[in-house]
Specification:
The protein has about 350 residues and is an alpha+beta fold. It has helices spanning about 1-20, 25-40, 80-85, 120-165, 170-185, 190-200, 210-215, 220-230, 230-240, 250-255, 275-290, 300-310, 320-330, 330-340; strands at about 45-50, 55-60, 65-70, 90, 95-100, 105-110.
Length: about 350
Amino acid sequence: MKRYNKIFSTYHMVYRLANSSEDQRTFALGIGRVFKNSLAADKIVIVFKHAGSYPLLKVKFDGKTQTVKSGGKSILTIREREIFASEREITQGKRMMSPFNFGETLGGVYLRRKTEFLEWEQRWFLSLCETMSLGVKLLAMRRDEKRLMVNYVKSLTRMLHQFVPTSYLHTSGVIKLVKEMGKEMRLTEKEINALEYASLLHDAGKTEVPTELLNKKATLTQDEYDVLRKHPNAGADMLKNMEMLKPALPIIRHHHERYDGKGYPSGLKKQQIPLGARILAIIDAFDAMYFGRPYKGKISLDMIKNEFKKQSGKQFDGKVVEVFLKVIDKADIKKHLRSCL
């Protein structure tokens, strides 16, 4: 009974890894630990094909040592090349190997230990590899989906720049700031990606605002302002059916909220406002001041810093302002921003 509980638990772990891993590296490390713990293997080599921008990804567990390499065939030893080139199942004595097949060979795994693998362990190993093949395929499909979504976001961003005169976030400068802010605030990769998508698409809802209103240089009337205030909700609603953009929707919807609760569309304040929206509010304001707008000239970096300090705790989250001021004081960030002018 104990053995069956272990087997069931291991399958559940593989399922969770397949559905939660962000990339092949994370998945390979996870299943490597599964093999190490469940089959007491001393040496494990896992190879995935088409690993992002590299032909191969290799994860190796050798005793207590763990290494990860990306590249071409040169990352494999001569023996590893021979093993994986055969693309066949091996369950002999102290070693086992199986390719990850799902319509095509997606990679493979090789195990070795000091004692011979029992017959039930060999059967279990091959069954696990079938399940893991599905996980590898799911990861590849998600990677392709992400690539398509990135291309879509880029196309939509170009369209916004062309048809929405106030959607002017300077992509190169802004993405650099987004990534640097994400690192400084210890955001996860998923949170940084959501913030990046939101920064590119935050004004998508302005496609539903009349062009003459967006181009107007005079002060808006209250009715006109009320129309403009609808664009965050309109943008989030427009993109809500795109699965990969769902983490970005709260940021898009609430990037015009103010820390003191006087913003729109929901009048949220302080921690009620999603962190990504509090970050984007600052980056959006910086972009407008540093690069300028057709209806408003740009101002110096020192003046921008003073403006953020004045609005700290009012329009903007003071802690996020503090981190942002630290970021734009970095020499490499200053150099990058100057190159974007």
